[in-house]
Amino acid sequence: MTVEETAAPAGAPLSDVNRISAERITIRFGGLTAVDDVSFTVPDKSVVSLIGPNGAGKTTFFNVLTGLYRPTLGRVFLDGKDVTALPPHRIAQVGLARTFQNIRLFNLMTAEENVMVAMHSHMKSGIVGTVLRTPRQRREEREGKEFARELLDYVGIGKTRDEYARNLSYGDQRRLEVARALALRPKVLLLDEPTAGMNPQESAQFVQFVRKVRTDYDVSVLLIEHDMSVVMEVSERITVLDRGTKIAEGLPQEIRENEQVIEAYLGKTGTEGYGVDL
Known about the structure:
4-stranded antiparallel beta sheet; 2 domains; Rossmann fold
């Protein structure tokens, strides 16, 4: 993602106002506890990362926040409003937008159409207006196209707007997912392994992109990410899960030096005389 350098640094003081507050979230599938009593906050205009080894419960926790899973115990709040029982489309409408670990696009729709699909939750014309092609509906469609093109330009793939999503490169499909999420005009943007498949240069550009999005679109950003260089560079706070339990939370340097975190990634035998670069 090609963006200009932004002055907003990682490690800036976090806001006292929380966009997301998850209280004592537990989710069980039969006899398996995937997430166990995890509390978590995302402050306003922050960049927060959720990390942990494979199977730690990160994506499951994301799915709870976005309404795909209903927690067995606990509650989720957005701007102080309890959204625990809302279905995914309502949670998206009230301000949580996400991308997925496995890309989910409409492959036989163009890049522009993929972005416009996300805008329908904010359009007012309804079915009747769409069928009758009322002036209001035509105006909304025109404005939607303009905004879609603005977003595609913003993430660096404006020239592909008329290409089918399935014909885009892997990296451009990732960018398209971000553009579609931004089309929801979210308060919080959730990114699930956004740099997967990117080369080191693209990953470094992504760090700047996240900071720019936070500033330009006035959003908080929560990401799951396995590239520790990205996590340490972009995050203002990091939370670590292991086997569904929160084992650490703090500033990047605190997490880098946390022996319990290093043990979770490497095992006990790997912590002796460790010099790991988390």
